[in-house]
Amino acid sequence: MLNEHKILLPLLLAGIIILPAGILKTGPQAGKKNDLDIMFYNAENFFDTIDSDLDDDEFLPLSPRRWDSYKYYRKLRNVYKVILLCGRDMSSPDIIGMCEVENEKVLKDLCERTYLYRGKYDYIISSGKDERGINTALLFKKDMLQLISSASWCPVNDDGAYIATRAALYSRLKSGNDTLDIIVCHWPSRRGGAIESENMRKRVASFIREKVDSLGKERKIIIMGDLNDEPGSDSVYKILQAVREGEDRSNDALVNTVFGYENGEGSYKYQGTWYLFDQVILSSSLYREEGGFCYEKQSFRIVNEDALLTGDTSYKGLRPYGTWWGYEYTGGFSDHLPVTIRLVRR
Question: 3-state class of 281 per DSSP?
Fold first, then answer.
């Protein structure tokens, strides 16, 4: 017999049915218990329709994009649907990192004006130096996790000058007797060329590495984000020092969970080529099985379900079904695919 998840999820994503709230097991009643499902998602220009002091004119009702209430509320529903798809057994993830989020109002609407309200999420957002006001954000189930502290880390050069990019959002969460240090990143884009912008990403990688070192070797650290570089790039592999599992077992090693997706698979497609920009990187302490939370080996997953993809009309195959195709409104989800991992408690 087909289970409820397989029957209902395609219809939900297609927007054909509205499910009664009792069916969506977003809260603790879903029965998952000693583990944590974690996802990261670049939500692609998750803006509200209200003018701000920052450069958000592109996403206003009278802008060329005509970003009105209809499009905004459709975006809210679509982001919610993706979050549900990234869970298990119709249960939403416990921790959600996001980027390209404009402000706290967007998160409030997502958590209170969609069925996500049943997950009882708390949320925080970075406060950075990006001129468009694009921020990183974190959602977490407050009946499972307690926020101890948070901060916006604005990357700086060696001379102390701010780098014109998005802030990294740092949060320390507690569950039982265990704690997690979570860093949500959105590194400088490749706009203007990958080589021309490479030094910016290297500087941000160095900044994040220094922050990780300051937390201490034994802390359970999760770095997740859109790094705009591949796992084997100098910024990620050499400067951040995020290596393949088993390659370096020293206490200060960072392990990139994405290794294994190296055969043309990715989370973002540009000019016909897939890139694995969306990554989850862990401290070596999360690979030990000495007690508390640890990484469930090989649980990293690019969520590339059919509903999140569309035909690539410019190149062969499929591409992420985004909200936009250039300036054409397509009403999809995002130009990035979400990624997930799982932590289990020993």
Answer: strand
Q: Is 46 helix (H, G, I), strand (E, B) or coil?
A: strand
- What domain range is 233 assigned to? 4-345
Number of structural domains found in the chain: 1
Higher pLDDT, 11 or 223: 223
Rounded to 5 degrees, what angle do the CA atoms 260, 265, 269 make? Answer: 140
- Report the predicted TM-score, pTM, of the whole model to 2 decimal places: 0.90
Which of left, alpha, beta for 31 (phi over 0: left; psi -120 to 50: alpha)?
left
Q: Where are the alpha helices (DSSP H) in 137-223?
A: 198-215
What CATH number is given to the structural domain containing 277?
3.60.10.10
Q: Residue 104: helix, strand or coil by DSSP? A: helix
Q: Return the residue matching tokens 């009792």.
A: 22
> From CA 100, how far away is CA 152, in angstroms rounded?
15
Q: What is the average pLDDT value for the chain, to the nearest integer?
A: 88
For 341, list phi and psi in degrees, rounded to 5: -140, 175
C-beta atoms surrounding 295 within 10 Å: 26
Q: Which residues contact 313 (CB under 8 A, 6 or more apart)?
A: none
Give CA separation, 277 vs 110, 251, 335, 336, in Å: 25, 25, 12, 9
